[in-house]
Design brief:
Layout lengths: L3 H11 L26 E10 L7 E7 L7 E8 L15 E5 L5 E6 L3 E8 L4 E12 L7 E13 L5 E23 L4 E22 L5 E3 L4 E12 L3 E8 L7 E10 L12 E3 L6 E5 L6 E7 L4 E7 L3 E5 L6 E9 L4 E9 L2
Parallel strand pairs: 2-9
Antiparallel strand pairs: 1-3, 1-14, 3-4, 4-5, 5-6, 6-7, 7-8, 8-9, 9-10, 10-11, 10-12, 12-13, 13-14, 15-16, 16-19, 17-18, 17-20, 20-21
């Protein structure tokens, strides 16, 4: 069984795989120090159905993903587990993640030898992996391989008399290979030093229903087999570049997700060439002071990652009308004409 949360979580792990990469078309090695850090927000777009092939693996590849068209957008927030509501359920976790503002939190444990997914928890949905799912065997480089097996069970309300709950139990075998490196071009930009990870998952899913009166669980239907293959590209500086998912071995269309921006989050800003914005809090107008003049784009997002607007700026000092924004916290990024992020941060609208 692969839930949407798990697919997104796989991206959480994947987001960090290339931070230790060399800046040349050579071997790339990933270690614990390159895992994602709490406080970072990743902005992503999704093409939910396309026949675009992920291409071949191998050394010095060129992957062209520019035909992708966004059908939806989301954010991935990397968090400190201590600041999440369900950290007590996974005491060994030292990393957490949330997609947008879904209220579903994924919990992970990092070490020098691996990065493992412990499970996910929310008010409505709970599941954990037994044993933990090894997302990365560290250090990872071209031709690194690992495999494993886990059991996970997800429980949800099922208010269909005489039942009140449903549980889906999955036993999954996974096989991972870092199968290539080279350059990848997405609708966002070209990444010259990328590494690709391929994972194949094979599982057997069983469904059970709980009787509301007797609290007895009974099987529902026959067990079903599941299969999934994912291709994930990573870049030395921008972490995860893209991910392609094939849900069935006979399918001919993929679902793609790719990075469109990175913001250091509401607690810190680390990008160079940072612009200054003021006043902050603002009411109806923001002043944007750039370190260097030139054509750039000022992009504003709400805290869930939804893009509010984007406007061109070029002068060293520009004014942007924000009178249409409601009171609250907003994130911004500044990108050049090539799509490279040169600044990011946050501001508050308060009237």
């Amino acid at each position: 069984m692969k839930t949407t949360t798990l697919n997104f979580t796989a991206m959480v792990i994947a987001l960090s795989l290339l931070a230790a990469a060399n800046r040349c078309s050579a071997q790339i090695t990933y270690t614990q120090s390159d895992l994602p850090k709490a406080g970072v927000i990743y902005y992503r777009s999704t093409d939910s159905s396309t026949s675009l092939s992920p291409g071949s693996g191998g050394a010095v590849q060129t992957w062209n993903l520019t035909p992708l068209t966004a059908s939806s957008k989301d954010t991935l927030k990397v968090l400190n587990p201590a600041g999440t509501p369900y950290s007590g359920k996974f005491p060994s976790a030292n990393l957490a993640a949330e997609i947008g503002s879904t209220g579903v939190y994924d919990y992970l444990t990092e070490s020098g030898s691996s990065l493992q997914l412990n499970g996910a928890w929310s008010a409505a949905t709970q599941f954990e992996f037994i044993p933990d799912w090894t997302m990365l065997s560290l250090p990872a480089t071209y031709n690194t391989k690992w495999m494993g097996t886990f059991k996970d069970a997800i429980k949800m309300a099922y208010p269909v008399p005489p039942y009140d709950s449903v549980e889906v139990v999955s036993h999954t075998n996974y096989y991972d290979t870092v199968d290539g490196y080279g350059s990848a071009t997405t609708p966002y930009k070209t990444f010259s030093n990328t590494l690709r990870l391929v994972e194949v998952d094979r599982g057997i899913d069983s469904t059970y229903l709980q009787n509301a009166s007797t609290h007895v669980w009974s099987s529902f239907g026959a067990p079903t087999k599941s299969w999934q293959k994912t291709f994930t590209w990573y870049d030395a500086n921008d972490f995860q570049v893209a991910k392609a998912t094939l849900k069935d071995s006979t399918a001919t269309t993929y679902s793609y997700q790719w990075l469109t921006n990175i913001v250091a989050g509401i607690n810190e800003v680390t990008l160079s060439n940072q612009a200054k914005i003021y006043p902050n809090p603002a009411t109806d107008e923001l002043n944007i002071q750039l370190n260097k003049p030139g054509i750039k784009y000022f992009n504003v997002f709400d805290i869930t990652g939804k893009e509010m607007f984007s406007t061109e700026i070029s002068a060293t000092l520009s004014q942007v009308n924000v009178s249409g924004l409601a009171n609250g916290l907003y994130l911004y990024s500044i990108t050049d004409m090539n799509g490279t992020t040169t600044g990011s941060g946050k501001f508050i609208i308060g009237r």
